[in-house]
Amino acid sequence: MVDIGDIVKLADIADGQWGQVTVEQAGRVGVPEATLVELEALHLIEPVIDEVVRLRAGGRHSMPRLYAAWLRLAPETLAWERSLPHSGVVSHRSAVRLYRLGDLPGEHPQFTVSPGVVAPDARTRRADLGPGSWQWVDGLPVTTPSRTVLDLVDEPLDITEVQSLIRGFVQNGWATVEDLTADFSSAERRKWAPLLDVLQAEEVHS
User: Source organism's superkingdom (predicted)?
Assistant: First the structure.
């Protein structure tokens, strides 16, 4: 029989995580996996991805599987206890989706974590993210527009895809041409300056 106290414990965690709880987080507060199975059978929780469930009366993130994959980067650590950006931020193609700028091909959530961090169940890149290279969007830490573009040009993307991406960031108010120009110059990515010139020309004639 389900203990109401277990539900309260799960709700306390889920309240700050868009209704989601990892199996490890549940175990941390004394709720065994068997109880989660029972709660799922009672339709009180539902699976999101492997080892992550959502309380059905809780919140719902606009991209629940991406949020759940982010939780899985540090499955025992609560969202509000994480050391950022060290423990991982959304990046690369997943960042493009989070910014609502399209859906570049890619089956797996992509994150950037600090070197030495072990991150399960996700496609991760290891790099040090300095101040100003990430921000919060829809409750998730994500690389900034300029960092996202700089990450993606090394994939590589087709030149027209990069141009479209930069235009999307500017037109949707996520970045300005001036900010991108400064960031790209400091990153020694001067070969992409012609793309910014195109955007500046379009703004003049719009």
Answer: Bacteria
Q: How confident is the model at residue 177 (pLDDT cuts 50, 70, 90)?
A: confident
The CA distance from 109 to 17, in Å, is 18
- Are residues 185 and 106 part of one domain? yes
Handedness of CA 188, 192, 197, 200 (dihedral sign): negative
Contacts of 42 (CB under 8 A, 6+ apart): 2
**Owning domain of residue 159:** 83-205
- Evaluate whether residue 74 is within a structural domain: no
pLDDT of amino acid 178 = 85
Q: How many other C-beta atoms can be found within 10 angstroms of the C-beta atom of residue 121?
A: 17
pLDDT tens-place string over residues 128-141: 898 899 999 999 99
